[in-house]
Amino acid sequence: MVLSRIRQAAAALRGGPLPAALPSAPAPQAGYLRGLQGGPIMMPVPVLRDAKDDVRIAWGRAAARTIDAMHNNGWIAGVVEQMVSLMIGDGLRPNLKPDFSWAGWNAKQEGDWGRLAERRFQAWAGDKWACDAGGRYTLAQMQAASVRSWFGTGEGVAELPSIERPGIEWRTKLRLVPSHWLSQKSSPADRLDHGVYHDHHGAPAGYLFEMRGPYGERIEVRKAARDGYGRPMLLHVFDGQPGQVRGITPFAPILRVLRDYDQLSNATLSAAMIHAVFAATIESDAPSAEVLDALTPDTGPSGTPSNNATAFSTYLGEKAGWYENVDIDVGKGARLAHLFTGEHLKLHASEHPNSTYEPFANFLLREIARCAGGVFEDLTGDYRGATYSSVRMGIAKQWPLLLFRRRHVPVPVSQAALEAFLEEEVDSGALIVPGGIDAFVRHRAAICRAEWRGPAKPQADEVKAAKAHEMYRNMGVLTDEQICSDLGTDWEDVYYQRAFEQQTREELNVHGGITNGGTDIDDAEASVKQTEVE
Asked: How far is CA 96 from CA 1, 99, 130, 453, in A?
């Protein structure tokens, strides 16, 4: 810069033109994203806004594309059903742990009350005419439907109406509502945000639905979230970020990946189908120059064919006469005969899919499996190259995510149904609570405290898992309740069943090969060792 100013001053004294200024060096920079301001690959600049605004803008398109994929994409339909089976199995069952310390009850009284409540609730949940407002599904089926709805739209909506039916002693019912019935409207003056009415503290007070009327017209219906006693009347389940009032499908990040996979698959299939058509060419040994001259014949001044044209016509005539008496069929009959002198038949094979198709397709499927919360091998059924350790590690990594989703998607719907059922039971006198229904309303959370059990954690090797449980139990760091939880059972049910079986064996004098209510320990250990050897 100093040298540039000296040259400019010298040129000014001479009266000559000023030289062009030298380019200045870029100023030093520091901070994030310094390499993303330009260059050959321009990155779009995203907009930073609240999560609820992102959901409001993208909800309709994301839900429609995801539901379409669940209907028409085998990978997505399969992984959703896989997640439903791992999350629900044959149905989630409650393990009631009521807290009656406010009434002075001991642990035995609480346990007896909880087991009686569980039996009556299971009778209600297993009868579709008793638990479903539409009389079509059991509670387990509605739990699975709520998970499918969450995968499709990111939300689950359910009502808890009271319907009296002949032959059924319970009025409490559960009705699943399609989440796309929730309105997309917002009105700050009415504290309506994306179909959800809020109170002064931001808690949901009601919901606005856009439904079909009796004559097919579109009508708007507002429904309250709770009644005057705090009993849930409508349940809205979703998972999201702070400030978010509606959910969005967990498949939203991979909708573009699904499109890319479909495009890759369709393009490869189209190319393969085109090449699958039988292709054959006949090669001729005739000199190229003569063939080209023959294909572009000259004509004389009077328009008569030249010698080249006449020769080529003679050649074609001889060729046509040959093939009139020769049958060449490369189709279904696959008949071949001698060709004309100097010609050869060449077959063309398909080159699709090529060697890069499967690696790239598997790369896309891995991203889909990761977003869905599954394992690549479960998604594709391809266990090539997988080992016991890799499968076990994959299950261990994904299992906490599945437990989290189970806890926050189907369990809230099931827990709300359990609370409504117990409230009716206490109100009718079928279950006794000190203080009656008023005490139940005051201590609802303590009385209805429950853990929901689902299917057992998948194990790559049951024998090794059992040995690990035995080792941790002998070390004193694992309890029977935790072991039963891993196996998808309730430890109290196991204990009571074992005691009942032992009592029955003693009454019937059945003792052969039985020790402490189980199979002979020596025989069991020998069987385990033999299995390990095999």
From this structure: 81, 10, 21, 11
Secondary structure in 3-state letters for 427-439: HHCCCCCCCHHHH
- Convert the pLDDT of each residue in 78-115 to its tens digit: 889 988 988 998 899 999 999 999 999 998 999 899 99
Distance of CA 342 to the CA centre of its chain: 62
Phi, psi of 453, rounded to the nearest 5 degrees: -100, 140
Helix, strand, coil share (%) of the chain residues, nearest 5: 50, 15, 35
Q: How many Cα atoms sit within 13 Å of 154 on the Cβ side? A: 25
CA distance 51 to 239: 12
Q: Are 184 and 56 in contact (CB under 8 A)?
A: yes
**Terminal Cα-to-Cα distance of the chain (whole angstroms):** 83
Q: Give CB contacts under 8 A, 24+ apart, made by 359-366.
A: 360/264, 361/261, 361/264, 361/265, 364/257, 364/260, 364/261, 364/264, 365/75, 365/261
* pLDDT tens digits along 35-92: 655 555 566 677 788 888 889 999 999 999 999 999 988 888 888 998 898 899 889 9
Please name which of 293, 460, 437, 483 lies closest in space to residue 375, comparing C-alpha atoms.
460
> What are the contacts of 434-438 at 24+ separation with CB within 8 A?
434/100, 434/103, 435/103
Contacts of 111 (CB under 8 A, 6+ apart): 492
DSSP one-letter code for 357: H
Strands 234-238 and 192-193 come out as unpaired
Give residue limits of the domains in the chain.
Answer: 51-256+405-450, 286-341
The two beta strands, 514-515 and 234-238, are unpaired
185 versus 529: which is more confidently predicted? Answer: 185
pTM exceeds cut of 0.70? yes
Which token pair is 313?
A: 């016509």
